[in-house]
Amino acid sequence: MKAAALVLSLLCLSVVPPAAAAQLQAVDIGPNQAVWFEEDHTVPMLAVSVSLPAGSAYDPQDKPGLAAFAAYLLNEGAGNLNSTVYQGELARRAIQLSMSPDRDYLTLSLVTLSANAREAFRLLGLALAHPRFDADAVARVRAQMLQSLQQEGEDPEAVASRRFYERFFSGHPYAHEVGGTAAGLNAVTAADLRGFVRTHWVRGGIKVAVAGDIDPVTLGALLKSTFAQLAPAAPPPPPRDTHLFARGTTMMPMAVPQPTALFGVPGMLRNDPAYLAGYVANYIVGGGDFASRLTSEVREKRGLTYGISTSFGDYRGAGYVIGQVATKRESMNQSLAVIREVLRKYSAEGPTEQELADAKTYLTGSYPLAFSSDTGIAAQLNSFQRSGLPIDYVARRNGLIDALTLDDVRRAARRLFDPARLTVVVAGTIGGAPADKIAAKPVKAATHH
What we know:
The protein has helices at about 1-10, 65-70, 85-90, 115-130, 135-150, 155-170, 180-185, 190-200, 215-225, 275-285, 295-300, 330-350, 355-365, 375-385, 395-400, 405-415, and strands at about 25, 35-40, 45-50, 75-80, 80, 95-100, 105-115, 205-210, 250, 260-265, 310-315, 320-325, 425. By secondary structure, it is an alpha+beta fold. It has 2 domains: about 1-225, 2-Layer Sandwich (Cytochrome Bc1 Complex, Chain A, domain 1), CATH 3.30.830.10; about 250-435, CATH 3.30.830.10. The strands form 3 sheets. Strands 1-2-8-3-7-6 form a 6-stranded mixed beta sheet, with helices on both faces. The protein has a 5-stranded mixed beta sheet with strand order 9-13-10-12-11. It has a two-stranded antiparallel ribbon with strand order 4-5. A hairpin with a 2-residue loop joins β4 (about 75-80) and β5 (about 80). α10 packs across α13 and α11 packs antiparallel against α12 (about 330-350). The longest helix is centred in the N-terminal third of the chain and has 18 residues, at about 135-150. The chain is globular and about 60 Å long.
């Protein structure tokens, strides 16, 4: 068993030619079920990514955490196999099964040697269609989730994140944390779990991406068998969030040596025609690590933090840009003032021609790295599926980025990064003058190294 697991781990790292990622095919397994497949017989393994419409946005208002609770019980027994036996069957064949609940979807990752593919799909199908929710497993997972919540309550990053989403998405299902609350988790019953699974672990709206050593006919048959017993109807998508942000700064006092701040502005839905321009605009201001304007101004020039970054996110019902910075107590207000000044200048002027050229070079040049293994291919394809993109987007993506003009990206920067729309949450104790009373030094055009 250990030898098989070692072989599987090595195969997961095996390089797949980047060009292969664009040679995709759709596999038809029934209506309202999307399957993208990249056939590759280089190594005897198979990677599968499955997304179900079962995210925390579907939690009942009085039981936040229900979706994640169900997700973490997926490998805790199914059919006539209790938790110990089920997990033993996975381990004996070196089948890796992991669960990742988020706000819109529950995403499952399955990695197996191709010789064990049939059994891997059988065990996955059994878990989805016939979860046991035995009392001992429910109690164990509940205790683990409650312990995780307690630990997060002592982590400034986790505290800031929870409060940020509560404020930014106030009144929307996206507002509560995926892991729920102690009261919500304690209120969940086995009957609640079974009811949620019946209506959300469904084949309607399912999205599947597969890469590896199997042919499309065999794959189609296995997938049909895997999902055959799931309900065909999909739940409605979460509603659009039309108000999004809450201006201003919220403090979450904590006795920690280094406070953490999360800051964000409304973003774009994935079907917005300006989405890629916004994505590139975000890369330049905060998504490019050491190449970004925020890193240049906050870290390199002033030494206020070891790291600062922003990311461009999209849920089915809302888009957002979120950033994070941690620094010394006495430096947080100055850091926030500099962030506001960087965003003010960027919103007003947008990027330079050189910044846009550098961003295009990096974003198009690094793109093939996402397809460097079967696991990477499956995960990347499934993320595109969750965003509602067509299958040919994989091949067209770099061309779309290259076609963006400086005016396109400047318009996106102007639309996105007005600091007056910032939602800021700081977890920790800070000193010095308030951020809105600090006059940050004028920000010069960013330099690149």
